[in-house]
Each structure stands twice: as C-alpha cells, then as structure tokens.
C-alpha cells in the first residue's frame, strides 16, 4: 500500500498536468467555437458613399480593360446556375448545416482544408502565450521578412493624405486614423456593437495590411530565414495621385523607382524576387496598363520585368497568374473572437423585413451592368426591396450604420458589378448575414478563392446577367425554399471571421481572419515555387502568365453532374 502510494505521487501530478493541458485545449476550442455562432438583427436603412463604396474609375477607357476583351470568351458563357437559381432542396447541404456551430472557423469552410497542418489554427496568440516552447517551431515555414522601404513608398504618402484624393471627392486624411481602420464609430444607436466598428475606407487595405504585418507573429529580421518577403509599398495610394494624369511617365515613375530599389537589394538574389509579395488596396487593373498609349488606364507596375517575378494581392485580381484577390476591408475590426461570436449571434437572430436590398448608385453609362434594372425593380417591389441611393445627397452610403441597417434587415443583397467586377459591398453584406446575389462570376467566385467556399451555391445566389435582364428578380428569390435560405444565411454568417481584418492592435485575437488566410495563401504559393526551383524546374512557367482559365466560371457539384448527364 505504502509503496503504491509512493507511486501515486508522480502519477497524480501527471494526471493533473494532463488535465490542465486538456482544460487549456478545451478553453481554446470553446472560445473558437463561438465564432460560428449566429444572430439577429435590426431594420431598414440606408446606403453607401460612392467614392468609398465603389471603385471610382469613371475615366477608364473600356478598350484599356484587358478583362473587357477576354470577357465574352471566358466569362459570359457562364451556365445558368440552376443549383442556386432553382434551389432544389439539397440534402447534402441539409446534412452539413446542423453541426456548424461546433467547428472552429478554420474548419468551417472546409474547401481549403487540403493543408490543415499549415493552418494557423494552432498558433493563435492565445495559444502561444500558454505554450511558449512551441513558438519558434510553429513559425517554421512561416517566417516573413518585411523590407524596410524608403518612406516615399509608404509613410510619406500617409503624411500627404490630402493629395491622395485625386479623382474622388473624399479627403483621405481622416481614414488614416487607427492604423488605417479610420475613425471609430462612436454611437451607432444600437445598430452595431459598441466597439470595434470603424468608418473604414476601402482603399486603406494596404495600410491595414502593413500594420497587421508589423505585428505578425513570425517576423524575422534575417531574410535568409524568411519564407516570404513582404514589400510594404502603398501601391494604391501612390497611384491614386497619378491615375488621372495624361502623362504615362508620371503614372509609372514610382513603379520604376520601386523595382529598381527592390532588385538592387541583396535579398532579391536568392529567388529573383519570386518570394516577394505586395498588397494593393485598389483593383489589379490599375497596375496593368498594356500599352503606352496614354488613353489606356493605369500604371504598368505589374508588367515591369521585376514585377513579373513578384506576387500581388489586391481587392480585385486580373487574369494574370501573379495576381490574387483578397477581401476588401469592411467596417468591423474585432479584437477578439467573442466579439465576432456576439455579432454572428445578432445577425442570426436578426429580423429581416426586406426580401432584398441594393445599396449603390446607378451606372447609366455602363451597358454591362444592370444597376438601372435593379433600381427599377426595387422601386416597384411594394416594399419587398430596400434601396439606398448612393447618388442621392440624402443617403450617406459612407456611414456604416446606414449600410448595416439596410443589409441586416434584408434576406438577399444584390451585388451587380459597377465600373469594375468586384464591390466592397459584397463583404458588407456577408458581414450583415445578408445572402449576396451575384450577376457575374468575376464579382466574387473567381476572385476570393482563398477566402470564400469553392461551392458558391452554399452561400450565394447567381443570376446570369442576361437572365436578370429578362426576368424579374423578386420571384426568383421568393421561390427559394425557406430551408435553403436558412442554410445559405448560416454559411454566410460562418464566413464572417474569414472576411474581416481583425484590429491590428489586438493581442487577444484567437481566430483566423482575412489577413491570416491571405498569408497562408501567399506562403503556400511561394512554397510551391521554391519546391519547383529546388527540383530544377523553371519557376517562370505559369508564374505570371495570362491565364483565362483562371476566370472560368467555377461549377458547383450539382452543375457538374448536370453537365455529365
Ligand atoms: C465576343 O465578342 C465579339 C465582339 O463583340 C463577338 O463578335 C463575338 O460573337 C462574341 N463571342 C461570344 C462567344 O459571345
Ligand atoms: C423543400 O423543403 C421544404 C421545407 O423543408 C419542404 O416544405 C418542401 O416540400 C421541400 N421540397 C422538396 C421538393 O423536397
Ligand atoms: C496542433 O498541432 C499538433 C501537431 O502539429 C496537433 O497534434 C494538434 O492536434 C493541433 N491542435 C489543434 C488545436 O489544432
Ligand atoms: C452601447 O452604447 C450605448 C450608447 O452609448 C449604451 O446605451 C449601451 O448600453 C451600450 N451597450 C453596451 C452593451 O455596452
Ligand atoms: C528587427 O530589428 C528591429 C530593429 O533592429 C527591431 O526593432 C525588431 O524588434 C526586430 N524584429 C525582430 C522580429 O527581430
Ligand atoms: C511627362 O512628364 C515628364 C516628367 O514630369 C516630363 O519630362 C515629360 O515631358 C512629360 N511628357 C509629356 C508628353 O508631357
Ligand atoms: C526573374 O526570375 C528569373 C528566374 O526565375 C530570372 O532569370 C530573372 O532574371 C528574374 N528577373 C528579374 C528582373 O530579376
Ligand atoms: C438617386 O439620387 C439621384 C441624385 O439625387 C437622383 O437623381 C435619382 O433620381 C435617384 N434615384 C432614385 C431611384 O431614387
């Protein structure tokens, strides 16, 4: 007995140790599980401020849009998306929904799970503070080196924020506050949470990203250890000063300056820049001018020889392979998972009195959009549709309170393209638990491949443009069965943590946000290139090529089956 007792000592300690570890693990998973919780919302509202909410590229000449030409070849033949249009009851989906509340957000979406081992799930800051011993190990393969660029490429631009407003009516200076998140929303009258909401300008993605990068958990000052090299150039803010210039050498000057600086550094030699990435808060077309004819839009930053060895993340990608789209920044920058869970819960419980909503401005000059039809249909909908007219001086579409009031009260949010394919509004609607309705695959499906589920029927409705011009939208949306609507909304709400950029200052963030998912995507891409180089392959193959398949309409499983029949 005595002898046995003697043995129990260490065993008890061992059990205690294991139990505490288990507790920590449980706490950790519990906290994360909140993120997939759901919510309830408010009511009618308002719209968006055009310059912030829409990409302002009015002066763009259509012939200068490379995508415009590729359009009917690659995108227009999009099949009618019966999967979401007709919404036959889908037993597979019904099976998937019930356990959503239990999965951590990294697992929720499921489509990107090919490499779970690289998931930052295991490496939240909370976990780290508990488990110091694993820190360095967990950074293995994830170290990033930030280039210390001269101020003219980033910080000087923030200082001259008044001059960045060229082409828009908005003074950008106030939006620089709070590390690029903009002024905090002081009082939303109960529409938003009391903290973590900001009047964020969509063009500030590059500043927010840089500030998050500075606090990234696996930074290194030793570039030889780095898996990727981040170039903190504020490409969008910079070009916004010159986009409307008729002098192309003025538009291209900083681009040449940048690549000269980068390729002159010793870090460039290791992989000739193929491990470099930069982030732009404007659409890729702004950096892809294909001709030196001044009537063509944009700079040629991404066509310079050095840039063809680098990767760019931006709010809208092009058909070139070294462009990747990441979400526009929305207004919500939570600092911890419980805030996300709280918001999700509100959006789940929210009463939605409008069948659909549109927040935006008409674009009468653009024949390829159906904003005019949408607005007309909305006006005759007998209150089923809520319109926030962003051209009107009375609706402030820049105010997150106005926008969220409309979106949280609507079941579906229409997302027709404007000047460019994508809209920041897509992410605002996801944030409000409002199911996005797309009319063009270029608006989201072929863009945010790292962040949104591969099967778009799970979280959105697709109505091809031609179809939408002929038929009325209301009966289409009305005919979607209640359980389908519920499942889609649940999926949308579960996407919220993946599409927000958490507050860069937060030390308690314990979920994978849009930033983390983007970093993971970049590291995977560069990792593949590194492997290719190591195996003697030519890394330039496929790296920066024009690739129309990139924008092929992604088919859902039901569609593929339909095709096979
Ligand atoms: C593509 O556009 C061209 C010019 O507008 C037109 O002639 C051609 O028929 C279109 N192709 C398809 C597949 O729509
Ligand atoms: C679809 O689901 C709804 C609600 O569960 C049900 O009432 C309806 O009968 C279903 N329709 C089909 C075709 O299964
Ligand atoms: C973390 O990673 C380790 C090994 O890499 C794995 O055994 C463990 O299950 C992971 N934990 C979580 C919470 O993902
Ligand atoms: C949020 O702020 C409003 C007004 O400042 C206040 O009335 C309300 O109690 C606050 N809510 C919470 C949960 O703190
Ligand atoms: C890198 O160097 C700078 C300046 O010497 C220092 O402030 C910073 O903490 C270092 N960062 C890391 C990750 O070692
Ligand atoms: C464009 O701007 C550059 C630099 O300011 C100037 O040297 C050049 O003459 C201008 N070109 C034209 C066509 O105006
Ligand atoms: C781009 O990378 C290739 C090797 O992949 C290299 O030969 C070429 O010199 C690089 N271009 C520049 C401008 O550094
Ligand atoms: C939207 O506002 C503009 C500017 O006030 C106005 O001209 C237009 O008629 C409005 N559209 C609708 C549908 O109310």
UniProtKB/TrEMBL annotation:
Residues covered by region (Disordered): 95-132, 546-565
Transmembrane segments: 12-30
Biological source species: Rhodamnia argentea
An annotated GO cellular component: Golgi membrane
Subcellular location: Golgi apparatus membrane
Gene responsible for this protein: LOC115753286
Broad class of the protein's primary localization: Golgi
PANTHER family cross-referenced by the UniProt entry: EXOSTOSIN HEPARAN SULFATE GLYCOSYLTRANSFERASE -RELATED (PTHR11062), XYLOGLUCAN GALACTOSYLTRANSFERASE GT14-RELATED (PTHR11062:SF241)
Family membership noted in the UniProt record: Belongs to the glycosyltransferase 47 family.
Comp. bias (Basic and acidic residues): 547-565
Highest taxon in the source lineage: Eukaryota
Topological type in the membrane: Single-pass type II membrane protein
Keywords, ordered alphabetically: Glycosyltransferase, Golgi apparatus, Membrane, Signal-anchor, Transferase, Transmembrane, Transmembrane helix
Gene Ontology terms, MF aspect: glycosyltransferase activity
Feature: compositional bias, Polar residues: 118-127
Protein name: Probable xyloglucan galactosyltransferase GT14
Record domain Exostosin GT47: where: 139-473
